[in-house]
Amino acid sequence: MSDQSGLQRASIETESGVEFVVSFNPEQFTITKTNNWQADTSRGRATPDLSFAGGESGTMSFTLHFDNTGGGGTITTQTDALAKMMEVDKTLASYDSGTQTGRPPWVQFHWGDLHSFKATITSMTLSYTYFASDGTPLRGKADLQLKQFDGADSFAPQNPTSGTPNPERTHQVQAGETLDRISATYYGDSTRWRRIADANGIGDPLAVAPGTVITIPKLRD
User: Fold this and answer.
1) Could you tell me which residues are beta bridge partners of residue 13?
2) How large is the angle between the packed helices 193-200 and 179-187, nearest 10 degrees?
3) Is residue 55 helix, strand or coil?
4) Which domains are delineated in the chain?
5) How far apart are CA 215 and CA 209, in angstroms?
6) Residue 2 gets which letter from DSSP?
7) How far apart are the first and last CA of the chain?
8) d(Cα 63, Cα 26) in Å, to the nearest integer?
9) pLDDT 10s digits, 87-138
């Protein structure tokens, strides 16, 4: 997402389509991948042979900064929205209303044409560093740790747009969702549902099964 100056804003998007656009782009982000190697020790050998014991989930970490000292109220509105991404998401198909159990959503970090692997937010440390005279937090930061959610997903950031300036997005349909509601979420206009239907070959917009992954085409007009 870009602002009025044309600056590309980074964002964090959940699997249910909730998007958090950052106030300030991170200065850096770190991606880590670890493989496990086991040593086959043998008596009398100075150096053991190594055997591959499998890989671990990739991780990503970065820091987001918040500053409302120029006006706009407390930064807790932003930090609360970020923290909500670590709560159990009742809109996911895996949520059991009977036992009231589920999981937080996986998220993806987007910055221009860069899109991270699917990941869960495993840790968030909020630090408030500046306050109004009444104690309202006006400046702070959030240190985030993310862990790869899907082993089939590449752990490195991807640019799926090679040669394609407008990447397509996907959305997993949740229980009770209809195409016009999804259209309103992504386009801000519920009447554009037909573009989604045509892109996915959907004949009946009211009969899309929960859990179905559909393509959300970019608007080009």
Assistant:
1) 19, 108
2) 110
3) strand
4) 11-165 (2.40.30), 168-221 (3.10.350.10)
5) 14
6) B
7) 17
8) 6
9) 999 988 888 989 999 999 999 999 887 888 999 999 999 999 999 999 999 9
